[in-house]
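Hey team,

Filing this mostly as a record. A colleague (T.K.) asked me to run one chain through the structure pipeline before their review meeting, and I want the input and output archived in the tracker in case anyone asks later how it was produced. No errors, nothing strange. Just documentation.

Input sequence:
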Amino acid sequence: MSILVIGVNHRSGPLSVLERVTLSGDGLPKAVNTLVSRDNIREVAVLSTCNRTEIYAVTEKFHGAFDDIRDFLGGIGGLNAEDLSAFVFAQHDEAAVEHLFEVAAGLDSVVIGESEILGQVKSAWEIAQSEGGARSTLNLLFRHAITAGKRARTETSIGRGTVSMSHAAVEMAMERLGPLEGAQVLVVGAGAMGDGIAVALHNAGAGEIIVANRSAGRGDALAQRVDGRAVGFERLPEVLGTADLVLTCTGSEEPVITSELISLARQPLRPILIVDIALPRDVEPSVGELPGVTVWDLEDLRTWAERGRNSRLSEVDSVRSILREQIDRFRAESTALQATPLVIAMRDRAEQVRLQELERHSSRLADLTPEQRESVEVITRSIIAKMLHAPSVRLKDQAGTPRGERNAAAVADLFDLG
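Output structure:
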């Protein structure tokens, strides 16, 4: 049995490929259901963000599971195996475990130490649990990875400064436009990312913040928090016509801002900067070709974030030390977990023998009172428990070692556990 991670992320593939394999909303639980039903996959969790779609699996057959997951990714992206293979990365066992821990700690993020990924890892685990994709192994793995991510942010300074994609997007825009006092800024989308953007804009002193969202209620709640105003998508042409800066981050499968919409809304000579951090992208590619319109997307954000990595690199060694410690704890619990079925089988066999012996001597016990019979039950169960305590502890403590393997084989043979 192996732990396997397969996916496309910001290191392995371009934005044009990554957006094709992105999953959100109902697509995430459906993906877990689809994959966990495959014969080669025992457990599965799907992590899909604006920078990665990664599938973590506990596999019965490594190569069969690899093919199943690769074909699944190709299916949702409309890509054949040959086209996708150049952009897929895969790791197994120790490397897969270390990768998830680095992701949770923010070491594999575009913005080193960013905080949003930890919540996304937790959400992926919760969906896997609710859909029956996460059982003993993935539950243990994700629990330790999330603990490692929390420790990295509380025990080191990796999370200081710009620690989210949404804040980075605002800082990148300000580097181009300068202070935002007096500027009209439009935030398209009021989800978690839009919330972070609006708060960052408010803290940066943006002149007027307009929140555009399909759901007027959610958009209004966010707008009130940042002293802005909310509009529905039907008013996009109006607010696009006056905005100096647009930051968009919806979960739409189709472009929200098109060339036609911009052409209708904009005065030809009025410049506008649009920062699109949605995946799939919210802005039609041709929008950037219009006069006076500049469009930046996640590729531009990644390039910008690279310049700010040095300020956090000094903390990476400290974070890796925490990860190694937490990975060791995961390994210890994981190996002990592997011994559990054998311990249970040994105890079941002993209980079977106990019951058989009581049945064999039932005629001699027939005259006992209920209280006396209960005493016999308690005494015999206690003898079994005491006799098996030391072997059980040693099997768990020595799991994963050569001595543990020898002891496990001996126990299986002596107790005829097959």
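Quick notes for T.K.: The chain has a mean pLDDT of 88. The chain is about 55% helix and 15% strand.
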